[in-house]
UniProtKB/TrEMBL annotation:
Its EC number is 2.1.1.-. This is tRNA N(3)-cytidine methyltransferase. The lineage of its organism: Eukaryota, Metazoa, Chordata, Craniata, Vertebrata. One of its GO terms (molecular function) is RNA methyltransferase activity. It holds the Pfam family Methyltransf_12. Residues 156-260 form the Methyltransferase type domain. Belongs to the methyltransferase superfamily. METL family.
Length: 362
């Protein structure tokens, strides 16, 4: 996905600020704001029931922007680092297995016996089905392995929706049986769309219902084992007061050296400028007509949030583009924030980032 990196003129930026000031002058009533927060999953569930998988296009650009999604041959020093981490990971996995997970068949046998077969996928889903049950929602699970426990490269997509990122990734990972993709959404209808898709492979993917805002909900795998977390156009739908907690929790899921990949709406994107009066919930946070919400970030906010979660910033850029509707002769500015944040190998490596974050201003 090539970037235009359009630079706005002072007049264009002033016009954008003016529009935001106008459309945020009237705020949504507090009791309605509470309703939108309380029923957030309901609104998204309704969205996917109406649009199914037809609304968003597949994100085939993901691998160009985020090549970190792909497992690659590790450098010698990375292999040594992985080896030193293995005993910690094994210990954590064993501890988790005793405490949290249902017993499942050995996944290696599943790969050998049922790779590519619908029967194999159905059986694997049956083995793991209780992970989406009320038992999973209420608390820790019992003994056994966890989905993807035999994988050597693990990815989690947060807010998978109907699978517009899931299936381009799965297609790429088809020849990498050592890789495993987790994907979750708090809209149960979205997760069902993913599971019912013809390209869903339960031998290499596990889709589950999960609310990332609820710290008390267990994940179907232990902390500290993920190589990559994908957080694309998800954080903007969460209340600003809860964002830091979400990022903090996700950070714990990464193993040392793991990457969190972020892309979302930027301040003064055309979507923000198009909101009408009466749709503003709080500063730069809006509700759409269907009850779903959107926040518009600055580069500084993104830096602060992820560095406070003890992640090292590897990339943090503003992606500006100009779209022109030639028929209507209308210019539209798109603004996105894209970042890559890495969990340090040693906590002390992040200390300088923490200091700069505390001193920085958006």
């Amino acid at each position: 996905m090539p970037r235009d990196h359009m630079q706005w003129s002072k007049e264009e930026e002033a016009a954008a600020r003016k529009k935001v000031k106008e459309n945020s002058a009237v705020r949504v009533l507090l009791e309605e704001q509470v309703k939108y927060e309380r029923e957030a999953s309901k609104y998204w569930d309704t969205f996917y029931k109406i649009h199914k998988n037809k609304f968003f296009k597949d994100r085939n650009w993901l691998l160009r922007e985020f090549p970190e999604i792909l497992p690659v041959d590790q450098k010698p020093e990375e292999k040594a680092r992985e080896s030193s981490w293995d005993h910690v990971k094994t210990s954590a996995t064993n501890r988790f297995s005793r405490m949290h997970c249902p017993t499942v068949p050995d996944e290696k046998n599943h790969y050998e016996k049922s790779s590519g077969s619908s029967e194999g996928q159905s059986k694997t889903e049956s083995d793991f089905s209780n992970l989406d049950s009320e038992k999973h929602k209420k608390g820790p699970m019992e003994t056994g392995l966890f989905p993807g426990s035999n994988a050597t490269f693990r990815i989690l997509e947060v807010g998978c929706g109907a699978g517009n990122s899931v299936f381009p990734i799965l297609n790429t990972l088809e020849n990498s049986p050592e890789s495993f993709l987790y994907c979750c959404d708090f809209a149960s209808g979205a997760v069902e769309l993913v599971k019912s898709h013809s390209s869903y492979r339960a031998t290499q993917c596990f889709a589950f219902v999960h609310d990332v805002c609820d710290d008390g909900l267990p994940y179907p795998f232990p902390d500290g084992i993920l190589d990559v977390i994908l957080l694309v156009f998800v954080l903007s739908s969460i209340h600003p007061d809860r964002m830091q907690g979400v990022v903090n929790r996700l950070s714990k899921l990464l193993k040392p050296g793991g990457m969190l990949l972020f892309r979302d709406y930027g301040r003064y994107d055309k979507t923000q400028l198009r909101f009408k009066k009466g749709h503003c919930l709080s500063e730069n946070f809006y509700v759409r007509g269907d009850g779903t919400r959107a926040y518009f970030f600055t580069k500084g906010e993104v830096h602060s949030m992820f560095c406070k979660a003890s992640l090292d910033e590897k990339q943090n850029l503003v992606d500006r583009r100009l779209q022109v509707n030639r028929k209507k002769q209308v210019k539209m500015h798109r603004v996105w924030i894209q970042g890559k944040f890495q969990k340090p190998l040693h906590q002390t490596q992040n200390s300088s980032n923490m200091v700069s974050t505390l001193l920085s201003q958006d």
